[in-house]
Amino acid sequence: MPKPVFILNGPNLNMLGKREPSVYGAATLADIEALCRHEADRLGLAVDFRQTNHEGTLVDWIQEAGEAAIGIVLNPGAYTHTSIALHDAIRSIAVPVVEVHLSNIFAREAFRHHSYVSPVASGVLCGFGATGYGLALAALAARTAG
Ligand code: DQA
């Protein structure tokens, strides 16, 4: 079995579709998972798609990915802006992490302009809605090819 890409979603992303659609769009998390599976098939990647509202669970999953995944697509939700624990977890692993946000966090409130994840991510995609997840998978596929 080839190692998958872990696609990890943080707090409140289970509410997509109902949650501020003018900011986050109409797609539900299930829609985003379907988009990811479709794109992963096209790219020849396996995916393990997860969501949690708990910071420590994200830390556990990032550590797990260090052993069990070829890369991570990570939307940390609000923990992006607060979590040194996520920053440290990403520093502790060798696999690439692509940070994804549905919204353009730089066009929003000032408290969203700082990310603890970006300095330790391989790259960042924000503002492209659900499409950003597919772009992140393509970026990981290109990075891990060969
Ligand atoms: C988000 C942006 C964060 O600022 C916010 O707290 C979220 C979602 C995004 O996908 O645009 O929960 O990560």
What is shown here, in short?
It is built from five helices and five strands. It has 146 residues and is an alpha/beta fold. The protein has a single domain (5-144), classed as Rossmann fold, CATH 3.40.50.9100.
Characteristics:
single chain; 146 residues; alpha/beta; Rossmann fold; 5-stranded parallel sheet; 5 helices; 5 strands; 38% helix; binds 1,3,4-trihydroxy-5-OXO-cyclohexanecarboxylic acid
Q: What features would you describe in this structure?
A:
β3, α4 and β4 form a beta-alpha-beta unit. The protein is globular. The protein has helices at residues 21-24, 29-43, 55-68, 84-91, 131-144, and strands at 5-9, 47-51, 71-75, 97-101, 123-126. The longest helix is centred in the first third of the chain and has 15 residues, at 29-43. 36% of the residues are buried. α2 packs parallel to α5 (131-144) and α3 (55-68) runs parallel beside α4. A five-stranded parallel beta sheet has the order 2-1-3-4-5, with helices on both faces. The model has no long low-confidence stretch (mean pLDDT 97). The protein has a single domain (5-144), classed as Dehydroquinase, class II (Rossmann fold), CATH 3.40.50.9100. It is α/β, with parallel strands linked by helices and 146 residues long. The protein is 38% helix and 16% strand. The chain contains five helices and five strands, in the order βααβαβαββα. Residues 12, 75, 77-78, 80, 101-103, 105, 112 line the site of 1,3,4-trihydroxy-5-OXO-cyclohexanecarboxylic acid.
